[in-house]
Every structure is written in C-alpha cells, then in structure tokens.
Amino acid sequence: MDIMFMNLAHRGASHYAPENTFAAFYKGLEMGANGLETDLRRTNDGVIILQHDEQLDRNTNGNGKLSDYTWREVAQLDAGSWFSDFYQGEPLVTLTSFFRHFARRPVLLALELKEPGMEKEVSEMIAVWKLYERVTITAFDFEVLQELRRRDDRVRLGYLTYGWDSKVRDQLAGIRAVQFCPKADLVTVGLVNEVKQAGYEIRAWGIRKEEQMMSCLQASIDGMTINYPDRLTEALKASGGSVN
User: Fold this and answer.
1) Alpha carbon of residue 194 to chain centroid
2) How far apart are CA 176 and CA 174, in angstroms?
3) pLDDT at residue number 239
4) How far is CA 16 from CA 49, 52, 139, 229, 232, in A?
5) Which PANTHER family does the UniProt record give (predicted)?
6) pTM higher than 0.85 for the full model?
C-alpha cells in the first residue's frame, strides 16, 4: 500500500457532530479527511457496533453496559441529543452498516477493537469486503492483535501504545504490524525518525490542542487521528502538503 498522509476523523468529525454516528463520519469526509477512525464493541447478542465506551450513559439516552443489551434494544437509543438538539434521534451504527456506507469509497478505515472476542468476525468481514489495503485494525490489548494475526496473515495491524522501546519493537515485529500509534504528546522528531527507520508507519492519537497537531506535522509524522479534520486539512494545504 502506498503511504499517504493519514487525516483520520476520530470517531468521525467528533468535534462537530456526535461521535461514531453517520453524521460525524460524513462531516469528517466533507472536511477533508481521507479516512475514518472508529471503535468496536459487541452487544449482548453478538452484534458488532461502533461505540467507544463500555457504558451507554455518556453518549446515548441509555444507561448501563452495552453488553447487557441486544442490538434491537440498542438500535432504539438516541445517540445524538447529548451533543445537541440538532442531532436528536441520531442512531448508533453497526460495523456491517459502516462497511456498506464506506467500504466502496476511496477512504482509509481504522478500526479499534475495544474488547477481545471479535477477532474472527472482524477479520472475516475485511476479507469479504476486500479491504486489506484500506483497513488498519488497532488495539491497546496486544493479545487481541496477536489473535488477529493468527487468524489472518494479510490484515494491517497497528499497536496503540504510550511508549516506544525494545519490547514494543519486538512486539510489532512479532505480529508483523505495519503501524505504531503513540499518544500525540510523546511525538518528537527523534521518535518519528526511529519508528520510520524500523520500517513502521507512525500515526498519533490523543490530539486535544492545535499546538499538538502542528508539532506532529513538524515532526513529519505519517498521520493523525483527529476530532477536527478540517483544521488538519488546512494546515496541510498551508504547508504544501495534501491528504490526497
């Protein structure tokens, strides 16, 4: 896969619309993102949906654990009103529906597995949709990444972590990962150079301030997961870069 700068809308353009909803995903693409990042969890009856939190309280009108509800129950929840009245009634999204909307578009997709147990189904879906070149699966749980690699030799893997050392390098090599994903405030020119020299892409997360975004750009990072992709699009244009 040819490396392009990754401007990934974090849970969609989540600064402007309710996270992990179609409203946020489409807004992210309208704002110049060339990719979408999202989170995966399971309902009680095994349906994989796009949801960051284990609990439903923060970003829906539901309460308690997602895993206590069936998809039929979760599908009735309002995932937009917490953000603003404009998005009242915005529903949660299944991974199947997400692929139906975006698998045929020329966009990058980053899927973070928030819990174990989905590896088989997610890897099978990537194969069915023929998304090996455009999907990167990430996790903080290294055992999840190991299981994904055991099941599929072709899937792109990225490790979400807080540091870079010999142990992390060995872990990346052991699962034949392609991407190292550090927290943005850890990114330096030296780190980016070392990661690239080791043969990995480097994509930052946890960007809360524009200063962090600019610092990552100046370090020549390969991409970012960002809540406001429009600002990154403008910064890339101003610097002579491009997301295309």
Assistant:
1) 23
2) 6
3) 84
4) 21, 17, 25, 10, 14
5) GLYCEROPHOSPHODIESTER PHOSPHODIESTERASE (PTHR46211:SF14), GLYCEROPHOSPHORYL DIESTER PHOSPHODIESTERASE (PTHR46211)
6) yes
d(CA 184, CA 216): 7
User: Angle at which helices 95-102 and 119-129 pack, to 10 degrees?
Assistant: 20
pLDDT of res. 240:
77
Find all residues with CB under 8 Å of 44, minimum gap 6, and list them.
Answer: 67, 68, 69, 70
What span, in angstroms and rounded, lies between the C-alpha atoms of 195 and 218?
Answer: 16
Nearest residue to 194 via CA among 162, 158, 174, 164: 164
111, 50 contact by CB (below 8 A): no
Q: What pLDDT, on a 0 to 100 scale, did the predictor assign at position 1?
A: 41
Domains detected in the chain: 6-238 (3.20.20.190)
> Cα 62 to the chain's mean position, in Å?
24
Collapsed DSSP state (helix, strand, coil) of residue 188? coil
Q: With pLDDT > 90 as the criterion, what percentage of the chain qualifies?
A: 95
Amino acid, res. 46: G
Are 207 and 225 within 8 A, CB to CB? yes
Q: Residue 244 pLDDT more than 90?
A: no
Average pLDDT over residues 18-39: 98
Give Dmax (Cα) for the chain. 49
